[in-house]
Amino acid sequence: MEDAISKPDAADLLQELTKVNERLAQLSDRLEKLESNGTLETLAELAGVIKAAKDSMTASVTAKSLKTGVSAISLLDEMVQWEGDRLMSVILRASYETREEMRKLDHASDRINLWKLRRLVKNPDMQKSLWFMVLMTKKLSRYLEE
Fold first, then answer.
1. DSSP per-residue codes, the chain
2. Which of 29, 39, 102, 105 could bond to 34 as cystine, CB 3.0-4.6 Å?
3. Is residue 34's pLDDT more than 70?
4. C-beta separation of 126 from 120 below 8 A
5. What is the rounded average pLDDT of the residues 85-93?
6. HSE (side-chain half, CA atoms, 13 Å) at 114
7. What is the per-residue pLDDT for 107?
8. How confident is the model at residue 135 (pLDDT cuts 50, 70, 90)?
Protein backbone atom coordinates (compact mmCIF):
# COMPACT_ATOMS: atom_id res chain seq x y z
CA MET A 1 0.00 0.00 0.00
CA GLU A 2 1.41 3.37 -1.04
CA ASP A 3 1.56 6.37 1.30
CA ALA A 4 -1.21 8.94 0.75
CA ILE A 5 1.39 11.73 0.64
CA SER A 6 4.44 11.32 -1.53
CA LYS A 7 7.89 12.14 -0.18
CA PRO A 8 8.35 15.35 -2.27
CA ASP A 9 4.92 16.59 -1.13
CA ALA A 10 5.79 15.75 2.48
CA ALA A 11 9.07 17.69 2.19
CA ASP A 12 7.26 20.72 0.76
CA LEU A 13 4.63 20.48 3.49
CA LEU A 14 7.31 20.22 6.18
CA GLN A 15 9.13 23.24 4.75
CA GLU A 16 5.88 25.26 4.70
CA LEU A 17 5.11 24.23 8.29
CA THR A 18 8.58 25.44 9.34
CA LYS A 19 7.89 28.85 7.74
CA VAL A 20 4.49 29.07 9.43
CA ASN A 21 6.08 28.10 12.75
CA GLU A 22 8.67 30.91 12.38
CA ARG A 23 5.93 33.45 11.59
CA LEU A 24 3.89 32.28 14.59
CA ALA A 25 6.96 32.62 16.82
CA GLN A 26 7.49 36.21 15.57
CA LEU A 27 3.82 36.98 16.13
CA SER A 28 3.98 35.51 19.61
CA ASP A 29 7.04 37.67 20.42
CA ARG A 30 5.22 40.79 19.21
CA LEU A 31 2.15 39.93 21.27
CA GLU A 32 4.30 39.40 24.36
CA LYS A 33 5.90 42.84 23.86
CA LEU A 34 2.50 44.47 23.38
CA GLU A 35 1.21 42.76 26.48
CA SER A 36 4.27 43.58 28.61
CA ASN A 37 4.21 47.32 27.82
CA GLY A 38 0.43 47.62 28.31
CA THR A 39 -0.43 48.29 24.68
CA LEU A 40 -2.61 45.21 24.35
CA GLU A 41 -4.71 46.15 27.38
CA THR A 42 -4.99 49.74 26.14
CA LEU A 43 -6.20 48.48 22.76
CA ALA A 44 -8.78 46.28 24.47
CA GLU A 45 -10.01 49.23 26.54
CA LEU A 46 -10.12 51.44 23.45
CA ALA A 47 -12.14 48.81 21.62
CA GLY A 48 -14.60 48.81 24.51
CA VAL A 49 -14.93 52.60 24.34
CA ILE A 50 -15.47 52.47 20.58
CA LYS A 51 -18.13 49.76 21.00
CA ALA A 52 -19.90 51.77 23.71
CA ALA A 53 -19.83 54.87 21.48
CA LYS A 54 -21.18 52.86 18.55
CA ASP A 55 -23.92 51.33 20.69
CA SER A 56 -24.98 54.75 22.00
CA MET A 57 -25.24 56.28 18.55
CA THR A 58 -28.78 57.16 17.66
CA ALA A 59 -29.85 58.71 14.39
CA SER A 60 -29.94 62.19 15.95
CA VAL A 61 -26.50 61.75 17.57
CA THR A 62 -25.09 60.55 14.26
CA ALA A 63 -26.63 63.48 12.38
CA LYS A 64 -25.36 65.97 14.96
CA SER A 65 -21.87 64.42 14.86
CA LEU A 66 -21.78 64.62 11.08
CA LYS A 67 -22.96 68.24 11.17
CA THR A 68 -20.24 69.08 13.70
CA GLY A 69 -17.63 67.33 11.57
CA VAL A 70 -18.69 69.19 8.44
CA SER A 71 -18.62 72.49 10.36
CA ALA A 72 -15.11 71.72 11.63
CA ILE A 73 -13.89 70.96 8.10
CA SER A 74 -15.51 74.15 6.84
CA LEU A 75 -13.84 76.14 9.61
CA LEU A 76 -10.45 74.62 8.77
CA ASP A 77 -11.01 75.50 5.11
CA GLU A 78 -11.78 79.11 6.08
CA MET A 79 -8.65 79.22 8.25
CA VAL A 80 -6.54 78.07 5.32
CA GLN A 81 -8.10 80.68 3.03
CA TRP A 82 -7.55 83.45 5.60
CA GLU A 83 -3.99 82.32 6.35
CA GLY A 84 -5.17 81.16 9.77
CA ASP A 85 -1.99 79.20 10.34
CA ARG A 86 0.02 82.42 10.00
CA LEU A 87 -2.44 84.24 12.30
CA MET A 88 -2.13 81.51 14.95
CA SER A 89 1.65 81.61 14.64
CA VAL A 90 1.66 85.38 15.14
CA ILE A 91 -0.71 85.13 18.12
CA LEU A 92 1.42 82.45 19.76
CA ARG A 93 4.64 84.40 19.16
CA ALA A 94 3.10 87.61 20.55
CA SER A 95 1.78 85.71 23.58
CA TYR A 96 5.18 84.20 24.27
CA GLU A 97 6.97 87.55 23.95
CA THR A 98 4.37 89.22 26.19
CA ARG A 99 4.80 86.52 28.81
CA GLU A 100 8.58 87.04 28.73
CA GLU A 101 8.17 90.81 29.08
CA MET A 102 5.78 90.32 32.00
CA ARG A 103 8.37 88.18 33.78
CA LYS A 104 10.96 90.95 33.42
CA LEU A 105 8.71 93.65 34.86
CA ASP A 106 9.32 94.81 38.39
CA HIS A 107 5.68 94.76 39.45
CA ALA A 108 6.27 97.07 42.41
CA SER A 109 7.82 99.91 40.38
CA ASP A 110 6.06 99.25 37.05
CA ARG A 111 2.54 99.99 38.22
CA ILE A 112 0.36 101.72 35.70
CA ASN A 113 -0.74 105.17 36.71
CA LEU A 114 -2.50 107.89 34.79
CA TRP A 115 0.76 109.55 33.66
CA LYS A 116 2.33 106.31 32.43
CA LEU A 117 -0.88 105.44 30.63
CA ARG A 118 -0.93 108.86 28.95
CA ARG A 119 2.68 108.39 27.84
CA LEU A 120 1.92 104.88 26.54
CA VAL A 121 -1.02 106.11 24.48
CA LYS A 122 1.26 108.51 22.61
CA ASN A 123 3.39 105.59 21.40
CA PRO A 124 2.54 104.81 17.71
CA ASP A 125 2.71 101.03 18.32
CA MET A 126 0.32 101.39 21.24
CA GLN A 127 -2.06 103.49 19.12
CA LYS A 128 -2.14 100.77 16.44
CA SER A 129 -2.73 98.14 19.11
CA LEU A 130 -5.56 100.12 20.69
CA TRP A 131 -7.21 100.64 17.30
CA PHE A 132 -6.88 96.94 16.60
CA MET A 133 -8.53 96.08 19.92
CA VAL A 134 -11.35 98.60 19.39
CA LEU A 135 -12.08 97.39 15.86
CA MET A 136 -11.82 93.72 16.84
CA THR A 137 -14.19 94.22 19.77
CA LYS A 138 -16.65 96.00 17.47
CA LYS A 139 -16.55 93.19 14.88
CA LEU A 140 -16.71 90.49 17.54
CA SER A 141 -19.80 91.98 19.16
CA ARG A 142 -21.48 92.30 15.75
CA TYR A 143 -20.81 88.63 14.91
CA LEU A 144 -21.92 87.47 18.35
CA GLU A 145 -25.28 89.25 17.86
CA GLU A 146 -25.98 87.29 14.65
1. ---SS-HHHHHHHHHHHHHHHHHHHHHHHHHHHHHHTTHHHHHHHHHHHHHHHHHH--HHHHHHHHHHHHHHHHHHHHHHHTTHHHHHHHHHHHHHHHHHHHHHS-TTT----HHHHHHHHHSHHHHHHHHHHHHHHHHHHHHHH-
2. 39
3. yes
4. yes
5. 81
6. 0
7. 67
8. very high
The CA distance from 103 to 137, in Å, is 27
Q: Across the chain, what does the average pLDDT equal?
A: 83
**CB contact at 8 A, 127 and 121:** yes
pLDDT for 89 equals 82
What is the spatial distance between Cα 94 and Cα 114, in angstroms, rounded to a whole number?
25
pTM: 0.37
